[in-house]
Amino acid sequence: MKIAVVGATGLVGSKMLQVLDEQKVHIDELIMAASERSVGKEITFQGKTHKVVSVDDAIAARPDIAIFSAGASASRQYAPRFAKTGTFVVDNSSAWRMGKDVPLVVPEINADTITNDTRIIANPNCSTIQMVMALAPIHKAFGIKRLVVATYQSVSGSGMKGIGQLDYEEGRIQCVPTTLAYPHQIYRNVLPHAGDFTDNGYTTEEEKLVNETRKILRDPSIAITATAARVPVTGGHSEAVNVETLQPFEIEEVRHLLEATPGVVVQDDPLQNLYPMARTAYDKDEVFVGRLRRDYSVANGLNLWVVSDNIRKGAATNAVQIAKYLIDTIL
Ligand code: A2P
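^ thats the input. predicted complex w/ adenosine-2'-5'-diphosphate below
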């Protein structure tokens, strides 16, 4: 089993290496690739030192699987070249997610969309992954008619640049970052702005929540609207999710469903101040759901608070789970 990690020097890439190790994925040869400026750098994995290579060299090595987290333009440029030589690409960027023939996969929900002929598999956006983990069982049981979502996204969602800006503004580091991730101070602030603004006034993060959720849940009829905000939290995205279902439900039924869902942990005892938080979700693989309560303003309304570590289940862990699925069922 030959596995390449493209973007191995980045925030998500290095978490991918950590998760590959934790999950004891069987690897005979590991190839670490990044941009030309990192070629020759050394990274230690399972006690062995590896030299970072160029993406061209990684393609020439013909790995079985290439896990990408190097940004959308690198994915657009290189993923088809890997695919052409037979490599399965698991891509963490937004480049291929909405492609008609590209499976957009959260393994607990729709791994069956991967076939023997698939070569590029997209890892969904971090905010989408944690939300659909909580919503998939609800959709299956009661049908979802409409979703109103507000996200509170941490700065690690913007990579090293986001963490660098918050650390600098907090006074934790002295050297001025060469590029800032946000157009305003993020420390002691909340920006109603995650991703880039599009012509219709929404941001790319908000559009991803709408389009990717419909694709993963295989239901283009779900009405979805979202507001994505950036908050001064280092890691862990939080989401207020308002759900309107087609069928009536009891809150206790929803609680039992979520408690029985692998990968989801219910933390919901408000009188004991127990609810999901970014701090407690940090460095965990699960999606945490709480503040379960009926929305009395509509017939079948439900409110949820959903939190997960955006670098783990929102990115690295989900990608490694897809790689494991490929190893176990396709390769
Ligand atoms: P490098 O470290 O050489 O710049 P992050 O999102 O944390 O900044 O990480 C981005 C990752 O993607 C890094 O490993 C970075 O490598 C890599 N990367 C960025 N652009 C390219 C590119 N054009 N080709 C290959 N790797 C790239």
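Residues 127-159+186-310 form a domain with the Dihydrodipicolinate Reductase; domain 2 fold (CATH 3.30.360.10).
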